[in-house]
Design brief:
Length: about 450
């Protein structure tokens, strides 16, 4: 099934930019990078010439000598039996981490032949840790593709309802729409946003077949690790990966290295942790106790929470059957709201919201799930897993810091009440627009007062 990706707009802007550099499209394995680049070429260029450096090892020989872009282009054109024309051809280097010299050649294409449109893709794992030959710093454009967002899922499943969500203002939704959106959200949370998994479910609504596809996605990670990770770090990596549900099961969810392996310390596992982050498989959320701009200046890196790149993968790692999510109105109850947090962070990452931190007071008795920056202010974000909105921690935070605006995302309907925006989890993709509207309303109220 065709799933419209929001990042396509950014790719078209890249294509049309007069300052275009070779592009590196990064993201977790199986999130749809290859498909998206080929779709870009099909609909926005006269022709596309595609090379896969994992499947076709002999391509590396074209980059073995001096970095001469003209000669490289001649060789690639002759090999593919296709003309590679400036501006009108999209040249795709896929799985480029398997040929570090091809990756490094992008620097020379940028300097000597910027008229050629070149897009490279591959796991960030291999790209970020390429050979000593060097990385083309400053000579490439970067974009990141994440798993599909809930908005992208809704657009594929119910485009009319998705269009309606793009028009809502700061007023409660009709109950009929809220119920339908809640049902779609449960489907998304059960299987996540990996395009191949979503497509199977949208086409068949067969839970068993969709679960098989999710298994295949998870299994595809193992060969990538074995190719790029030092053998000694592989067991550590899988111990960290498999420990995530255990870490979440504790009350505060803070990552503890000793939960990965008894007696383990940060220095024992930090290399494997970095591999997971470089592969976009996990995301760290660091502690901040002073919520001031810029947040990164106040981060305490010793304390963090670790989330997976995709909520469906987290559900699978936790050993929850999809029926637990699909058939339960209190969808997050069994996993203490951590699925909800992972879902929210996944949508934040897709929206390019960075940095994302969390807050606790010095005693550790009050905790706000996330802090984000919005223009000139820090917004506390509380994630509630259902309809119960009791929130002592948010009250503690608001009493202490008096933020201009606070955000609570839950299954309750949309409303703005005393500078607290309650944003339904299924409307999270509309957050930038609705936060803007809420800021204007708060400002208007303040000016009248």
């Amino acid at each position: 099934m065709m799933i419209e990706r929001i990042l396509m707009r950014e790719l078209i802007r890249w294509k049309d930019s007069p300052r275009r550099k070779p592009l590196i499209l990064r993201g977790v394995r199986q999130c749809g990078k290859t498909w998206l680049l080929q779709h870009l070429g099909k609909h926005n260029f006269e022709n596309t010439v595609y090379f896969n450096f994992e499947q076709t090892k002999e391509l590396a020989s074209f980059f073995a000598g001096a970095y001469d872009p003209r000669q490289i282009l001649l060789n690639l054109s002759a090999y593919s039996r296709q003309q590679i024309k400036p501006q009108s051809t999209l040249l795709i280097f896929d799985e480029v981490q398997n040929c570090p010299r091809a990756l490094n050649s992008l620097k020379y294409f940028c300097e000597q032949n910027p008229e050629y449109a070149i897009a490279a893709a591959g796991s960030l794992l291999g790209i970020s840790l390429s050979s000593p030959e060097g990385f083309p710093v400053g000579k490439v454009d970067f974009l990141e593709l994440t798993p599909c967002t809930f908005n992208e899922y809704l657009q594929a499943a119910d485009p009319v309802l998705a269009e309606y969500c793009g028009t809502v203002s700061l007023a409660p939704l009709p109950e009929a729409f809220a119920i339908r959106l809640g049902n779609y959200l449960r489907e998304y949370l059960a299987f996540g946003g990996m395009p191949a998994v979503m497509s199977v479910f949208l086409e068949t609504h067969d839970v068993i077949e969709t679960e098989k596809q999710l298994d295949m996605v998870l299994q595809s990670y193992e060969p990538d690790f074995s190719k790029h990770i030092p053998h000694k770090d592989i067991p550590k990596l899988f111990m960290i990966w498999q420990s995530i549900p255990v870490q979440f099961a504790r009350e505060n969810g803070k990552f503890i290295y000793g939960e990965v392996r008894q007696g383990a310390r940060a220095k024992d596992l930090e290399d494997a942790m970095q591999w997971l982050q470089s592969a976009c498989m996990v995301q760290k959320v660091n502690l901040v106790q002073v919520p001031e701009l810029p947040l990164l200046a106040h981060v305490d890196r010793k304390f963090f929470k670790l989330y997976t790149t995709d909520v469906g993968i987290l559900r699978k790692l936790a050993g929850l059957a999809p029926s637990v999510v699909l058939n339960n109105q209190n969808v997050f109850g069994e996993f203490k709201g951590r699925l909800a947090e992972n879902y929210v962070l996944q949508q934040f990452r897709a929206m390019g919201i960075t940095p994302v931190c969390y807050w606790t007071n010095p005693s550790g008795r009050a905790e706000v799930d996330f802090l984000i920056q919005n223009e000139d202010m820090v917004i506390p974000v509380e994630v509630k897993s259902g309809l119960n909105l009791a929130a002592q921690s948010m009250r503690v935070y608001r009493d202490k810091y008096s933020p201009v605006l606070a955000l609570r995302t839950s299954m309750q309907n949309l409303r703005l009440d005393d500078r607290l925006l309650n944003l339904p989890l299924y409307l999270l993709g509309e957050m930038p627009r609705l936060i803007g509207a809420a800021r204007e309303k708060v400002k208007a109220v303040a000016s009248r007062g």
